[in-house]
């Protein structure tokens, strides 16, 4: 399965914030959309960074509540790993496992086309396993040939 197949079913919406957004506002955005990370983009189409709930937790542990008034520019990850839509789901799984992150933006030519989260990966794996199970059950019981 390719990443473009996943985006076709989940859509290409990506929640972004600008680098000057405060951490307090970022938390409101994460809560409002029930997500764990947002892409940081000054113009709304490119990727200038990514910031996840883990970055906020680390910064809070290191510097305390004053972090809430800082901007996301102070806590984001600038070296973002991205994939192109034609990448295989297995490549994204490998990337997430190797680098221990749960979000991968989908980008072509510097333009954001979607985001894949660990939740999307798990959902698609379960769907694939269910389909395979149903095929095999049908084969064994003779409902399918
Ligand atoms: P996550 O597991 O996605 O919440 O992120 C864990 C850490 O990895 C945080 O410091 C994020 O800023 C960073 N991170 C998340 N996604 C990516 C990515 N695609 N490329 C690089 N860093 C990332």
Brief summary:
The chain is an alpha+beta fold and 145 residues long. It is built from 5 helices and 5 strands.
Question: Could you say which structural class the secondary elements and strand pairing correspond to?
Answer: alpha+beta
Bound small molecules, by name, code or SMILES, are: adenosine monophosphate
- The total strand number stands at 5
β-strand percent reads 15-25%
* Distance from first to last alpha carbon: 24 Å
Q: In one word, what is the shape?
A: elongated
Number of helices: 5
Q: Strand arrangement, largest sheet?
A: 1-2-3
Share of helix among residues?
40-55%
Can you give the mean pLDDT? Answer: 94
Radius of gyration: 18 Å
Uncertain segments are none
Largest sheet: 3 strands, mixed
Order of helices and strands: HEHEEHHEEH
Model description:
The chain is of the alpha+beta class and 145 residues long. The protein has five helices and five strands. It has helices at 3-10, 23-33, 53-63, 89-99, 118-141; strands spanning 16-17, 37-40, 49-52, 103-108, 111-117. The strands form two sheets. A three-stranded mixed β-sheet has the order 1-2-3. Strand 2 and strand 3 form a beta hairpin. The longest helix has 24 residues, at 118-141. It is elongated, with a radius of gyration of 18 Å. The two termini are 24 Å apart. The model has no long low-confidence stretch (mean pLDDT 94). It binds adenosine monophosphate (AMP). Adenosine monophosphate binds next to strand 3, helix 3 and strand 4.
């Amino acid at each position: 399965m390719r990443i473009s197949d996943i985006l076709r079913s989940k859509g290409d919406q990506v929640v972004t914030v600008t680098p000057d957004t405060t951490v307090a506002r970022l938390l409101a955005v994460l809560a409002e959309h029930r997500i764990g990370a947002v892409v940081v983009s000054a113009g709304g189409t490119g990727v200038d960074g990514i910031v996840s709930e883990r970055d906020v937790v680390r910064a809070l542990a290191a510097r305390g509540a004053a972090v809430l008034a800082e901007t996301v520019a102070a806590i984001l990850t600038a070296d973002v790993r991205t994939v192109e839509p034609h990448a295989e789901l297995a490549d994204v799984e490998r990337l997430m496992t190797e680098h221990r992150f749960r979000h991968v933006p989908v980008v072509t030519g510097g333009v954001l086309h979607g985001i894949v989260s660990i939740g999307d990966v798990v959902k698609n794996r379960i769907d694939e396993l269910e389909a395979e199970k149903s095929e095999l059950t049908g084969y064994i019981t003779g409902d399918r040939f």
